[in-house]
Amino acid sequence: MGEAARITVIGTGYVGLVSGACLAEMGHQVICADQAEWKVARLQQGEIPIYEPGLKELVATNVSANRLSFTSHIGGAIRSSDIIIIAVGTPTQDNGDVDMSQVNNVLTCIAANAVTSKTIVMKSTVPVGSGSLAEQHLRLLAASHIHLPVVSNPEFLREGSAIWDTFHPDRIVIGAKDPEAGIRIARLHASLRAEVLHTDRESAELIKYASNAFLATKISFINEMANVCEKVGANISLVAKGMGLDRRIGPHFLQAGVGYGGSCFPKDTKAQLKLAQNVDYDFQILRAVIDVNRLQRERFVTKIEREVGCLSGKRIAVLGLAFKPNTDDLRDAPALDIISALQQQGALIQAYDPAAAELVMERMPDVPVFTDPYEALDEVDAIVITTEWEAIRSLNWRLVRSLVKAPLIVDGRNMFEPVEMSQLGFTYVSVGRETAMLAELVV
Ligand code: UDX
Fold it and tell me: Of 258, 266, 332, 345, which sits most exposed with the smallest number of CB within 10 A?
């Protein structure tokens, strides 16, 4: 590895915590700072406020090795480091603009505390032009002899595999106006084998939004294709496989279902659309991507209704609540919208999720959530699958068949082979695969 650097990461949310722990593992001296004292106190006791496989162990190892520490004294942490990474939240405001208040507070704090020059890294997802504004902000407030260049270094971590993604990135994007500052940040990652792309700051900022918007586009595209498949009797799994074999298309992000959720795609697509509007550009594809994603959830509820009939008083097991497997994150999770829509029509929900149960009970106290999936399945009129957890795939489906009142599965993640589920005695309905051919095969 290159030389060990002294780094402060501000913000111990998902990105800050994972980045801080991974940089410590790479050998750097890292302080994770957060103004929320309760959070810092928990972290100091080895408790991790988010669910991410491997993170607890990684934090513990690096704390024991004295490479990683936590503090709520942000000023002190800034003074004792040469590199400051900003990893605070950038939520969307009601009008669609990005709320930069947390970033701006951090910049003010950096300017007030920096007594020596430091390199500032923008990890938070921010609209194009923010790096330049941040530098102006710092120049205005900091002493004139202090140099505080801002480098854009977006993250591309997926929840659930964030540690793997950090150590095996497809690329490291560094956008800097001051080339030396860019090289300094590239050196932090010297121990990783990854392509480093140096760009101007604006392009780096846009790469993050463009990547997320493009991935969201792939998902909405395949979902629309699935809807067409249902109308013409084709199978979306085979269509996606056939498309993905073309190396120009690639096999990833072509999984049809109930659409995307989570903390990034919904927020970043809307922010990119608004950003384009602000510069008088109508990003039509992105508008459609967002609409299709919303409609996909509605279509799924209509599908359940079509299969179950009148929903009033019907017991429905909803399996999988987190926005995707291996996380307890419920932000913009399709399952929550789907549950609300079913409840509005009088359905009685029995939910199950291997990780998010507690959080759902806090957010939706009227939804009974079971930690034993078989309890959620007892005597139900239909099974609805909304997240493709391995724990759901590996259920004893023969046993499930004997527990339910009606053997109906409406699968929003295409987890199973329709023929196999039919052979187990289920009426199995999924997304884009209701082909006449499959029905014939079973007979
Ligand atoms: C995403 C990006 O992948 C990551 O690079 C970025 O930094 C943050 O946003 P994440 O939100 O953790 O990561 O999850 P991801 O695995 O990308 O899935 C996002 C959503 O898309 C999930 O709801 C998932 O179920 C859905 N999805 C994904 C599909 O519906 N179909 C697919 O083929 C792929």
Answer: 345
